[in-house]
Amino acid sequence: MKKIRKAVLPVAGLGTRVLPATKAIPKEMLPVVDRPAIEYVVEEAKQAGIEHIVFVTGRAKGAIEDHFDRAYELETTLREKNKAEVLAELERNLPKAGSISFVRQQAPLGLGHAIWCARDVIGDDPFAVLLPDVLVKGEPGCLAQMVEVFEQTGGNVIAVDEIPAQDVNKYGVIDPVSQQGNLYEMRGMVEKPEIGQAPSRLKITGRYILQPEIFKLLENQETGNGGEIQLTDAMARLMTKQSFFALQYDGVDFDCGDKLGYLRAIAHFALQHPDLAEGARAVFETALTENKPTN
Ligand code: G1P
After folding, report:
1. What is the arithmetic mean of pLDDT over 5-10?
2. What is the pLDDT at residue 293?
3. pLDDT in tens, 113-157
4. How far is the CA of 230 from the centre of ligand 1 (A)?
5. I want to staple 15 with a disulfide (CB 3.0 to 4.6 A). Which of 22, 122, 207, 292 is the partner?
6. Residue 203 in contact with ligand 1 by CB distance below 6 A
7. What pLDDT, in 10s, does the model give residues 179-193?
8. What's the mean per-residue pLDDT of the chain?
9. Does the Cβ of 171 fall within 6 Å of ligand 1?
10. Angstrom distance (rounded) from CA 262 to CA 135
11. CB of 204 closer than 6 A to ligand 1?
12. How far is CA 223 from the centre of its chain?
């Protein structure tokens, strides 16, 4: 069985749901406690054994490339000021030379199109996709849990979790036929179904392990929900030819493409931060006391 070595992170999205914060900053660079959101996703990929990351970028996303590069002036200044700890931290987070690639999505034609843009760099092996809007807290990380399943099942594996019925129209939703433990087999999936029309309450979380045949299905550029080329539609077609599993992973996810989801992520990650947890708890408690609703 082929190992999952490469992951695609589509980072070309405009972040319209979190404007004005994202007017001049890529949404993936918004800080969650003390690091940009994207760093948590890259960590999750590395923990799952990913050796090469392909960022699908777009206009005005240069800050992401800079973040994963050396910053000579900054490093020299830190060295002169004997800031060894920060320097070591920067060094730890620097990808190995040649272990990241950037491809450009030239127009916002949808998630399916973004993934298709990475086809040449991915080649002919199964690969992972991690949507950087979604931060997942799990131990081990969500993708590592999926890789473990994939090593048993092969085929394609996606992560799912249960959502309230009134939220189904915001996500891709699966149509499960059977369940074994936390693993589902499916007969279909649908992107952003109307409330009351969804086949289940199991949403597609934003973590995927896919076979390269998905690229052929994305190639015909058919549009779906919202007039966009949808990854969900291509997966629904791949499912008729290859085995496909949905893993109800163990953990919690935060949709950072949404203002309150982003705030939830900050609160959770702060409360579990090795150095800041205690301080963060005090900050939140004080803020709650000082902002009691008056009625
Ligand atoms: C994308 C996918 C959707 C998935 C969601 C997870 O939607 O198309 O299937 O459930 O991410 O966050 P988007 O958030 O880009 O509209």
Report:
1. 98
2. 80
3. 999 999 999 999 999 999 999 999 999 999 999 999 999 999 999
4. 9
5. 22
6. yes
7. 999 999 999 999 999
8. 94
9. yes
10. 9
11. yes
12. 22
Position 295 scores a pLDDT of 67
Q: Let me know if residue 295 belongs to a domain.
A: no
Instruction: Please report where in the chains the tokens 């705030």 appear, as a residue.
Output: 263
Structure tokens at 237: 């077609």
Q: What long-range pairs does 178-185 form, CB within 8 A, spacing at least 24?
A: 182/247, 182/248, 182/249, 182/250, 183/149, 183/153, 183/245, 183/246, 183/247, 183/248, 184/160, 184/245, 184/246, 184/247, 184/248, 185/244, 185/245, 185/246
CB count, 10 Å around CB of 201? 16
Residue of minimum CA distance from atom 14 in ligand 1 = 171
Interval between CA 214 and ligand 1 midpoint (Å): 17
Asked whether 132 lines ligand 1 (CB < 6 A), one says no
* CATH code at position 135: 3.90.550.10
Share of the chain above pLDDT 90, in %: 88
Give the end-to-end CA distance of the chain in Å, rounded to a whole number.
63
191 lines ligand 1 (CB under 6 A): yes
User: How many structural domains compose the chain?
Assistant: 1
Angle between helices 72-80 and 84-92 (to 10 degrees): 150
Is 112 touching ligand 1 by the criterion CB < 6 Å? no
Is residue 42 in a domain?
Answer: yes
Give 37's pLDDT tier (boundaries 50, 70, 90): very high
Q: For ligand 1, is residue 232 a contact (CB within 6 Å)?
A: yes
Residue 253 has which token pair? 């996810």
**What percent of the chain lies above the pLDDT cut of 70?**
100
Spacing, Cα 253 to ligand 1 middle (Å) = 13
Which pLDDT value is given to residue 292? 85
